[in-house]
Amino acid sequence: MEGAKAEGLVPADTSYELYVDPAKYIKRSISQVVDAALIGGALAVLVVFLILGEFRNTLVIALSLPLSIALSFLPMYFLGVSLNLISLGGFALAVGMIVDSTIVVMENIHRWRHEDRLTQEPRHWAHVVMDATRQVRAPVVASTLTSVLVFLPLSFSAPLANAILGNQAMTVVFALLASLAVALSVVPLVAYLLFKGPKARSLDRGEPKGFARYADSAANALIAAYKRVLGYIIAKPARAAVFLALTATLMAASVAVLLPRIPKEIMSKPQSDRVVLFFRHEEIVDSLEIVENLMPSLRERLDEALSGFSYRSFANVSG
Questions:
Q1: Residue 188 lies in a domain
Q2: How buried is 148 (Cβ within 10 angstroms: 0-12 exposed, 13-18 middle, 19+ buried)?
């Protein structure tokens, strides 16, 4: 505006006030997505700690999160995917899936470390880590590629769907592939170095210590309850058949009754404090006449409709 005044495009005594600043809205939205991803990552690490019950195993898994996301930036840069609300939402979505491969690898290393008595020997410990990783390598690769193949087609969908889901799907794919590479390379190396000393490898010998005792007790209780329920169902073929029939009936009823009642739309209505109105007058088309005659009446109607509320209005006349 100052440049326009200097060039004489607008009168020198023109005053202006910034009513709408899209940059603030965009920054706030991006900050909210980043906060959601950080909270999701922290909760995922907390759940892993509650399940595994050991800090060092949880530390290895927690390190895989930022490392996988950082590696995802490489394909994003070379393929021209920008950091926006959609792509950041993809990272938030992928946080829970990123740790899956690492959990499987780390838990198998933990199990071998707990069961194999020869891990006290330094040379044998390296073979234990490699064998434990090799044992779950195929399932981890298959599981990750299955998830990748689910999201990958969204990147090649129709223009409208691609605009909404394309960047999100691509970031999820990048994060999953990066997590696979981290789980099969970095995690075994960090586990080897972290538990390299004889004292470190012998910490979890025998009965679990620390919080691991409570985690194991809770896990064993859940497993025992599951076994009792499953044993009761399959004890008699007729009982198992009735259970399967009831489950199938419930699923069919939910699809037939609830699915038609779920609203169908391109995008859900955003929860925002901004309202944008578009209108066109059939008779008045001159911009000056719209500003002088229509805008005052529209403001009066807004004051009447929003009586008691604090609001700011901004009008843009084009055409």
A1: yes
A2: middle
Asked if residue 13 is part of any domain, the answer here is no
In SS3 terms, 140-168 reads as HHHHHHHHHHHHHHHHHCCHHHHHHHHHH
Q: Within 80-121, where are the H helices?
A: 85-115
Q: Mean of the pLDDT values across residues 168-188?
A: 91
pLDDT of residue 18: 65
pTM value is: 0.69
Q: Are residues 185 and 223 located together in one domain of the fold?
A: no
Handedness of CA 78, 36, 26, 63 (dihedral sign): negative
Give Cβ neighbours of residue 299 (< 8 Å, ≥ 6 apart): 313
Q: Are residues 156 and 224 in the same domain?
A: no
Range of the domain at 84: 22-206
Residue 5: count other Cβ atoms within 10 Å of its Cβ.
Answer: 14
- Residue 104 has φ and ψ, to the nearest 5°, of -60, -45
Q: What is the tens place of the pLDDT at every residue in 93-110?
A: 888 788 888 888 988 888
pLDDT tens profile 236-271: 899 999 999 999 999 998 888 888 888 877 766 666
Q: How many domains does the chain have?
A: 3
